Each structure stands twice: as C-alpha cells, then as structure tokens.
C-alpha cells in the first residue's frame, strides 16, 4: 500500500529522463532540481496554490464545525415536528454523488456571480451540507448524559448556552474527527475546484498539479512528483496531529 508513495518520493529526486527507466526505490543519483523547477514552473510560485488550498480548507473546517454541530444538537436534543423525517432526508443526501449536484450548483453560483471565487467552495459548508458529519456528531451527542442538559437548564441556561458551554466541550473527539476529515477532503478535492475556479492565480494544489500534465505526452514528471510530495505534506501533518482524536471520535460514535 505504501509502495506507490515511496516510489513517488524516490522519483521526485531523480532526473525526469530516468524516472521510468530506473524503477528502484533507491535512486542512483539525487537531483533536487525537480523541487526548484516545480516550485516556479507554473504561472505563480507553488506557495500561492498551497495558500489557496489552505484558505479553502480552513474555511470548510470552520463552516462544518459550526453548522454541523448546530444541526446535530438540534437532531439529538430538541423535540420538534418532523424531526425523524428530516433526519432521514438528511441521511439520504449522503447517497447523492457530487456529479448529480454540480450542475444546479453551478447555475445557482453563476447567478450569484460567485464563479471564479472561493465562495462556492466555502459558503455551503456554513449551511450544514455535509450530512456525514451531522450524523457523526448526532451519534456522539446521544452518548452524553441528558442529565447534564437538565442541570444546566435548572441553572437558567437556554439551548444555545447548553450547546456552547456543555455539549461542545464534551464533543472534542467528534469535532476533531470532523476537522481532520474536512481538511483531507477539501484539500484533495479536484472536481468541484476545477469547475468553479478558472483563474490560474486561484488554483488549488490538485488543480495546479493537473497543469503539469500535458495531453500531448510532454509531461514534466519530475517536477510533478516533487510538487505532489509537497502537496501531501500538510495532509500527513494534519492527520498525525489529530490521529488520537480521530480514533477516539470514530470509536465513540458507533461507526465501525
């Protein structure tokens, strides 16, 4: 499973002309020129694409943490008419592929004049559109004793204070799981970013990496592999930093 990653890492320090002639994992010669060339090969320095991806990822994380936790609290703690039906409808949306939604989304965002901005990629996250994370948090909140809410209500807390002061601090594992998955999915997203972003200065890492590929066969493989390693580094770092919470969050929400 790890072999392709190791091969890509090895190929990133090989001259492009010998990458496919020398399949060994240990390169016969180290050439860091691929990193230098790849960093400046496109219209802007590669750190610009890293920054664009980071802006989108941070916006998606904040949006999912706020909106999905609010929706989860409502489904798990509030009694209102149609709750079960709405919860079932929310779960059904998990089965809808992005290809079904992308056309009406594009029409809507085009009418709002949001095309070629980060707004189509960030704003929906503030509207609780990721049903998986709502379901994950609902399952976690249901494991918390309802007596905590009742004690807070006796002390004069309303629903929002119970949510903010009681539920959210206890939901740290579920929130960390949401943050890690959101970061990985938004950082690796290619299709929607390719659709909504047309200005090269707004490209994210996946879209920028696609620019290295030449349909005529003149692909710069060395710089492509080098920048792929650079693009993977934040994912590994974020995942390792939240691994403990990620495992705890999944284990305590009933998802096996």
UniProtKB/TrEMBL annotation:
PROSITE patterns: ABC_TM1. The keyword Amino-acid biosynthesis does not apply. It comes from the Bacteria. It is found in: Cell membrane. Keywords: Cell membrane, Membrane, Transmembrane, Transmembrane helix, Transport. It is a multi-pass membrane protein. InterPro entries: MetI-like (IPR000515), MetI-like_sf (IPR035906). The keyword tRNA processing does not apply. CDD domains: TM_PBP2. Residues 50-242 form the ABC transmembrane type-1 domain. The chain crosses the membrane at residues 49-75, 87-109, 121-141, 162-187, 221-241. Belongs to the binding-protein-dependent transport system permease family. This is Carbohydrate ABC transporter permease. It comes from Pseudonocardia xinjiangensis.
């Amino acid at each position: 499973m790890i072999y392709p990653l190791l091969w890509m890492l090895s190929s990133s320090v090989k001259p492009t002309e010998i990458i496919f002639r020398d399949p060994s994992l240990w390169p016969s010669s180290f050439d860091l020129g691929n990193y230098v060339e790849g960093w400046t090969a496109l219209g802007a320095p590669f750190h610009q694409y890293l920054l664009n991806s980071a802006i989108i990822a941070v916006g998606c994380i904040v949006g999912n943490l706020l909106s999905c936790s609010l929706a989860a609290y409502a489904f798990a703690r509030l009694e209102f008419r149609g709750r079960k039906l709405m919860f079932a409808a929310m779960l059904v949306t998990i089965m809808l592929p992005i290809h079904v939604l992308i056309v009406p989304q594009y029409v809507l965002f085009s009418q709002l004049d949001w095309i070629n901005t980060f707004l189509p990629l960030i704003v929906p996250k503030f509207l609780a559109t990721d049903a998986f994370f709502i379901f994950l948090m609902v399952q976690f909140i249901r494991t918390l004793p309802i007596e905590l809410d009742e004690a807070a209500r006796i002390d004069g807390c309303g629903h929002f204070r119970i949510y903010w002061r009681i539920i959210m601090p206890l939901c740290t594992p579920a929130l960390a799981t949401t943050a890690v998955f959101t970061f990985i999915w938004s950082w690796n997203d290619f299709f929607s970013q390719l659709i909504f972003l047309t200005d090269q200065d707004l490209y994210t890492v996946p879209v920028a990496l696609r620019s290295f590929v030449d349909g005529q066969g003149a692909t710069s493989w060395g710089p492509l592999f080098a920048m792929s390693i650079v693009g993977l580094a934040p994912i590994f770092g974020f995942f390792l930093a939240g691994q403990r919470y990620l495992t705890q969050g999944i284990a305590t929400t009933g998802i096996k």
